[in-house]
Amino acid sequence: MDLVIARIEKDPSIIKEVIKQLKSQIRSIRFNATLVLGELGQKAAESTTYLMTCLEDEDWSVCREAARSLGKIGKAAENAIPALSKLLRDKEDSIRIAAAVAIGRISTAKDEAISCLAEALCDKNEEMRAAVARTLGNLGSNAYTSIPSLILCLKDTSWTVRTAAAQALSGIGKDSVKAIPMLAKTLEDKDWRVRYHAINTLVKIGKDAIPALLDALNHKDSQVRKGALEALGEMRVSDPKIIEIIASFLKDKVEGVRGKAADALRSIGKDAIPSLLTFFESANKEVKMLIIAAIGGMKMDAQDAIPALIKVLQNEGTEIRAEAALTLGKIGVATKEVIFALQHALSDKSSIIRREAAIALGRIGPNASAAVLALMEALKDKKPDVRWRAAEALGKIGVGTTEILSPLKDLISDKFDYVAEAAQEALDSLKNE
Question: Staple partner for 198: which of 119, 186, 284, 317, CB 3.0–4.6 Å?
Fold first, then answer.
């Protein structure tokens, strides 16, 4: 077969010779000719009519291979769809599956074919049901009429079929609005793959799915609440009332739900900052950490939270203050207030705060040059982690004066290797400026 394909690459006229072999009396020759034409794909478009005759071949394997080859040819084989649709009822499993896959590859189908595919979703063969579902998804909005049948497949005993059905509804797109109630119900599915595709589909549907997702937030199953929060986050809803509802789940009794609520608010971005800061006031330590981490995940979009973060850096417990310092670095905006707060934190009684302040200044980079003197002082810190991060920050800020280079050179002989390496890297960086 490889030899024939290689010859066709040099001389396309040989395709006609291969087509002639489809009428051979010898089964193996017909089979191999069909196989070769499929491997050629679109280049064998002229063989479509001849391959269609092979769909009625007395040998089931030739029939199956003809269906596969028509699928590989693609849109040029559109005329074969009625014949392929009939094969969806064939007694041989592999023929039915090949026909379903082929229709999906051709990617165009009229109402009659879609009706046949929807009927085939009840096939006794699990692989066939999954193949049909995937094909309907490939057909996109043209397969709108199959939605009721795909919805029923979301209850299939096979996770493969349930997943394929959810994917298909996603492929059909916004025309899947009628499927919203069942998709929301599918958030209860035990298989994560099914839930994943249901969430993706609900996100694609968009605002029409929001009421169902809000209802799902009241579900007793934490898995459903997490799925609904994930979908709402990916939709990046901007409605303050909905954001407030999402934020309320920062107090959920299940840790995973609290985490999903924080992730959703991070995905929504700056519109969620007022609610996050409001909930911060009455939150416990764990939730406060979640809230600050969510704000940090927004990076520069979280600039509105800077005043509150500076206040946190000055007034909360050590871990929360450390997270606030790190978050100011992630936001990366070098206002006078931010630099002053981080400079002050470099002399904090907690080495954790001092370290995180140095990291934050390093992340801000050249715009944090006003903190150079404070960082130079931090090179003398008794804690090696603080010296390490201060050296690293000076290299990133990139102000290479003699006053800075001298203490960095002294640090090369630090008894902690990682501190010495950071000092050397900073020196190398500053020398290249």
Answer: 186
What pLDDT score does 297 carry? 94
Q: Return the pLDDT at 432.
A: 66
Q: Return all residues near 250 (Cβ < 8 A) that are at least 6 apart.
A: 258, 261, 262, 279, 283, 287, 290, 291
- Averaged over successive runs of 10 residues, the pLDDT of the chain (433 residues) comes to 75 85 92 91 92 94 96 92 94 96 86 89 96 91 85 90 90 79 88 86 91 96 96 94 95 95 95 94 93 94 95 94 96 94 95 96 94 94 96 87 84 94 91 66
Determine the Cα–Cα distance for residues 45 and 145; give it in Å rounded to an integer. Answer: 30
Name residues whose C-beta falls within 8 Å of residue 301's C-beta, 6 or more positions apart in sequence.
Answer: 269, 270
Residue 290 lies in a domain: yes
User: Within 10 Å of residue 98's Cβ, how many Cβ atoms?
Assistant: 26
Containing domain of residue 67, as a range? 1-108
pTM (whole model) above 0.85: no
Q: Say which CATH number the domain at 259 has.
A: 1.25.10
Report the C-alpha gap between 222 and 230 in whole angstroms.
Answer: 12
Q: Into how many domains does the chain fold?
A: 2
pLDDT tens, residue by residue, 367-380: 999 999 999 999 99
321/81 Cα distance (integer angstroms): 65
pLDDT digits (tens, 9 = 90+) for 83-123: 999 999 999 999 999 999 999 999 877 788 889 999 999 99
409, 382 in Cβ contact below 8 A?
Answer: no
Q: Is residue 174 part of a domain?
A: no
